[in-house]
């Protein structure tokens, strides 16, 4: 399968060729929907796009009395609060931050947008864009379109666009890699066979110590065991909803290897969360963790020079393929303050903002100048994410991608927790996806 790998991975790989770049919700009321519950009309306020970001920003002013609600992830709230503070100081627009997991935001926007309870600016993985854009839930990125395209990697622009229209304001490129504790193993394992061999000497369930841990019930990570050995999603370029390879021979081969790794991690999938995993890894009770750059800052603080990052180990001798994605801001089509919301999305995804996000959280910029900044090029950990990004695949962004998560997130725990036959579990998941794609409720 070819999913425009090179083009989309440019978001994580375009660092001047030398380095590749990559909570629980609180509903609150604070949305700013227009009183008519109709999408915002911004035609009269849109300033013409130019090649100068400062010039356009100077021409766009927030609406009088504007205030904003922004949905952010729990893990990146510290960044959101800093950027909101800077934005308020510059534009005199108050910003309220609400914690909503990015994968949940489009679903919540679908429900809360027309009723006036949604945020003005949301943060979503690019694979959710098609669903939001096709439902007219987002305003196009029109005022800042030319600047966004000129300042960011081509791949991030692809990920921020749907059906030829730019909607998103890209702020980070992501894939995942292997974190390891050098005090427990000096070198990263090359294969999952090596992971199992090490874990036999380290894993002790009674002492809550494990050789490796990741969110085994989450398809975002589980896709590695599907794609590496030949499984795939939505056929050519990730656009054919009727071509689903999640249960083909290659996928079952990889998922059989997935089930075997339970020897290293004899824990129910529901007992593994990001918070639990983080606590065990930083305390030295988990030797290896598969996760993304959003954990980098916390892990560096906890382990210092004893932290290592490496590509995901091979599976059955094949280089591991990971999911990759672009995290983007979007502007709620029902906002009362479209100018202020677009200004915030642009401001919070600028070069300086992306460097701030990298410093505070560890994310990988999409802004070309940020990618070339010494803060990024001089970071030894990013090279591991860069290497992994070369063999990653972008998540499909067609609306049907939303139908994949629940069935596969049910199948993986069946395989892991209940020793279900991988073929049986995945056949069921694929049928559920097909039913959903064809309109089943």
From TrEMBL:
Cellular component annotations (GO), alphabetically ordered: ATP-binding cassette (ABC) transporter complex, substrate-binding subunit-containing
Residue stretches of biased makeup (Low complexity): 33-51
Any GO BP: maltose transport
Region (Disordered): 33-57
Any Pfam family the entry gives: SBP_bac_8
Lipoprotein listed as a keyword: yes
Keyword annotations from UniProtKB, A to Z: Cell membrane, Lipoprotein, Membrane, Signal, Sugar transport, Transport
CDD domains: PBP2_Maltose_binding_like (cd13586)
Top-level taxonomic group: Bacteria
Molecular function GO labels: carbohydrate transmembrane transporter activity; maltose binding
Signal sequence, renumbered to the chain: 1-23
Primary location class: membrane
Membrane topology: Lipid-anchor
InterPro entries the record matches: Maltose/Cyclodextrin-bd (IPR006060), SBP (IPR006059)
Family per similarity comment: Belongs to the bacterial solute-binding protein 1 family.
The protein's name in its UniProt record: Maltodextrin-binding protein
Lineage: Bacteria, Bacillati, Bacillota, Bacilli, Bacillales
């Amino acid at each position: 399968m070819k999913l425009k790998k090179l083009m989309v991975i440019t978001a994580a790989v375009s660092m001047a060729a030398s380095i590749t770049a990559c909570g629980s919700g609180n509903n609150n009321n604070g949305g700013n929907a227009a009183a008519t519950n109709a999408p915002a009309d911004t035609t009269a306020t849109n300033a013409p796009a130019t090649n100068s970001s400062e010039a356009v920003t100077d021409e766009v002013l927030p609406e009088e009395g504007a205030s904003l609600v922004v949905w952010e992830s729990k893990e990146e709230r510290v960044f959101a609060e800093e950027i909101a503070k800077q934005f308020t100081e510059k534009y005199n627009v108050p910003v309220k931050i609400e914690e909503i997991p990015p994968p949940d935001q489009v679903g919540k926007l679908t429900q809360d947008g027309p009723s006036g309870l949604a945020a003005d600016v949301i943060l979503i993985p690019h694979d959710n864009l098609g669903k939001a854009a096709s439902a007219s839930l987002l305003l196009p990125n029109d005022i800042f379109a030319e600047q966004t395209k000129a300042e960011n990697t081509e791949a991030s622009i692809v990920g921020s666009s749907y059906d030829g229209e730019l909607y998103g304001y890209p702020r980070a490129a992501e894939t995942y890699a292997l974190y390891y504790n050098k005090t427990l193993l000096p070198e990263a394992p090359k294969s999952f066979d090596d992971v199992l061999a090490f874990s036999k000497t380290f894993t002790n369930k009674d002492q809550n110590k494990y050789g490796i841990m990741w969110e085994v019930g989450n398809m975002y990570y589980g896709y590695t065991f599907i794609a590496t050995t030949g499984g795939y999603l939505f056929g050519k370029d990730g656009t054919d909803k009727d071509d689903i390879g999640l249960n083909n021979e290659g996928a079952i081969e990889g998922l059989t290897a997935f089930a075997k790794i339970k020897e290293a991690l004899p824990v129910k999938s529901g007992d593994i969360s990001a918070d639990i995993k983080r606590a065990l890894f930083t305390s030295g009770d988990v030797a290896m963790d598969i996760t993304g750059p959003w954990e980098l800052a916390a892990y560096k603080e906890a382990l210092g020079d004893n932290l290592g990052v490496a590509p995901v180990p091979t599976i059955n001798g094949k280089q591991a393929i990971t999911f990759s994605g672009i995290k983007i801001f979007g502007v709620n089509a029902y906002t009362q303050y479209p100018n202020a919301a677009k200004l915030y999305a642009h401001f919070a995804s600028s070069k300086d903002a992306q460097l701030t996000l990298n410093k505070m959280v560890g994310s990988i910029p999409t802004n070309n100048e940020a990618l070339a900044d010494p803060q990024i090029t001089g970071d030894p950990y990013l090279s591991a994410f860069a290497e992994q990004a070369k063999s990653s695949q972008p998540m499909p962004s067609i609306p049907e991608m939303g139908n994949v998560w629940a069935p596969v997130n049910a199948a993986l725990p069946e395989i892991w927790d209940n020793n279900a036959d991988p073929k049986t579990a995945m056949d069921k998941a694929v049928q559920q996806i097909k039913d959903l794609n064809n309109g089943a409720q």
